Amino acid sequence: MTDVDKTIDFSQMPDEKGHFGIYGGVFAAETLMQPINELRDAYEKIKNDPDFQAEFDRDLAHYVGRPSPLYHAQRLSEITGGAQIYLKREDLNHTGAHKINNTIGQALLARKMGKKRIIAETGAGQHGVASATVAARFGMECVVYMGAEDVIRQAPNVYRMKLLGATVIPVESGSKTLKDALNEAMRDWVTNVDDTFYIIGTVAGPHPYPEMVRDFQTIIGREARLQIQQQAGRLPDALVACVGGGSNAIGLFHPFLEDKEVAIYGVEGGGDGIDTARHAAPLCAGKPGVLHGNRTYLMEDKDGQIIETHCVSAGLDYPGVGPEHAWLKDIGRVKYDAITDSEALEAFHTLTRIEGIIPALESSHAVAYGLKLAKTMEKDQIIIVNLSGRGDKDINTIAKIEGIKL
Amino acid sequence: MSRLNATFEHLKAQNKTALVPYIMCGDPDFDTTVRLMHALVNSGCNIIELGVPFSDPMADGPVIQAAAERVLLNHVSLSDVIDVVARFRETDTETAVILMGYLNPIEVMGYQVFAEKASAAGVDGALTVDIPPEEAAEYTQLLKAKGIDPIYLLAPTSDDARIASIANVAAGFVYYVSLKGVTGAASLDIDSVVEKLQQIRRQISLPVGVGFGISDAETAAKLSKVADAIVVGSAIVKRMAEYGHQPDQLIQSVTELTASMRKAMDQ
Predict the structure, then answer these.
(1) Fewest CB within 10 angstroms: A91, A307, A309, B138, which?
(2) What's the confidence (pLDDT) of residue A7?
(3) Which residues are CB-contacts of A397 (< 8 A; sequence separation ≥ 6)?
(4) What is the rounded distance in angstroms from the CA atom of residue A189 to the CA atom of residue A31?
């Protein structure tokens, strides 16, 4: 239970300038303001347009393969001795993660705006693959920026993007991870504003991205809300999702925010532990600041420089987080916690062996937290864990950590 | 009168255009930065734009990002940059100095504290790349209260409505980014710059500087006929990178460039 003010209408957030409380907004160079405003106006126009929604829904059904199942993981629940765990199977979407929900939405919008070229940044490569996929489908040019470190960590996804016809540009600046890829994509956008649409993969960046990406991802929560009522006859007691930028999490959480009886947990990448310097948990251990177009919690040093993050999963390895999560933390509606690399790896194996489902390392953080939480709850209680992606992309990483040569 | 206003009035009376070099503070060390600032003034520069490093400089190209990475290895902070301005002021109380950087270091210091410290050190203006007028009410108010001019960028994509919103908050001068892209980008179309400057001047009475893509004396001279200030960044920072830890050669190389620009601009 939380102490959320009854008067908050979560559907009315953000305000018209993109603020969630003190978070969000538009913090961008003047060179980017015109394309950001153009996007904001275009999104305003289509967000309540029934024709656009119908087209989006059609693609989600027939191209992505929605609705994704809500699966009662009975054997997994049994080993905890506690609550019943249901997995929202976003790993079964086309391309293997929730990311495609958003890229379909943004690609439809890009087409509507007459943009012929799309650019994207990617960490784990899932958003890059999802962007390259929709670019192939809509016949658009696609350029994906990826940190040089991540290009190595996620080689199979890099090849996938190339097969799909995308150009993958390794980014050698800064820490060579997701944040640097984002910087580089912004630079591309500034330089090529006329014909280029920038598909941001998470609920961060300048307004309208946090709102727009959330809206495209709430299909996850809307489906889960119906499915759990069909299967269990009631709403869940708890929701759990991993939070890097936070798009799969907000997608699951948002349709439940006004259900006060549903406890909500966001799980950050704890790396070696949040009491060490090596983690990726800005909500648990960071401070508010301004980066990548919005005000939010950041991993930063005493001078306001962004510090390098550490997390076994590339998709959680980001020093910021979506501004709506920052706000949900401050108002106490969502509790944010962290799972370490070793806890996530253990959960990866547990789910794989017990249920025959290989989860992404990102999602393994949510699974680990779900397992911990279930142990503290009763057998007749229900937790929905968002299984945001499948783990095929991570098997090289896992094998390497465990000293196995493939 | 503020140093920026005085500088532009003085130059206008002589029918001259301001030359504004950008240097990254602390590259390669603070002593060299202070020496370089004085040397730039002696080579004919009128306003110094001192770069405050940021780990994620999204509006900058590879040359300036690399400079930021170099000085961040030494943990150069916003406080350090302000201290360098105070050192420069010990012997130069006339040349205007503006800080150029990103918002987060200022957020962490606090707008009020920043305004007070910067003002006490003799900073004249602040160009904070990622705070547009829409988010800047408190920031501009606190800066102006301490006599620091908030300087704003204008872009080829800025329409009349945006120019008007910047006219409301800017002081000192405005800085027109002469091409779509990041700092240090290649080409520059002078005719389109001339046209845009006319559009800007219809709404903004402040002096208008032009920058991004100016790397040689010839371009500086051409643009000086239409702009109130010429900002040169990456071309200078490139020379600074080249002479890394040889301060004498670094200063010589950079001031050769600025002196050649000054000469061409005055002809």
Answers:
(1) B138
(2) 72
(3) A153, A312, A361
(4) 10
A35 shares contact with chain B (CB less than 8 Å): yes
Q: Could you tell me if A195 and A116 are in contact, meaning their C-beta atoms sit under 8 angstroms apart?
A: yes
A128 CB burial (10 A radius; 0-12, 13-18, 19+): buried
User: Which residues are CB-contacts of B140 (< 8 A; sequence separation ≥ 6)?
Assistant: B133, B150, B169
CATH number of the domain where residue B83 is located: 3.20.20.70
Residues A254-263 have pLDDT tens digits of: 999 999 999 9
Structure token digits, residue B209: 């500087």
What is the radius of gyration, based on Cα positions, of chain A? 19
Length of chain A: 406
The number of domains in chain B is 1
Contacts of A257 (CB under 8 A, 6+ apart): A10, A264, A328, A333
Cis peptide before B57 (omega within 30 of 0): no
Short-list B2, B146, B25, CA closest to B79: B25
A179 belongs to the catalytic site: no
What are the tens digits of pLDDT across the range A284-321?
999 999 999 999 999 999 999 999 899 999 889 899 99
By residue range, what is the domain housing residue B78? 3-266
Catalytic-residue membership of B9:
no
Give the per-residue pLDDT at A2.
46
A190 to chain B: nearest residue by CA? Answer: B181
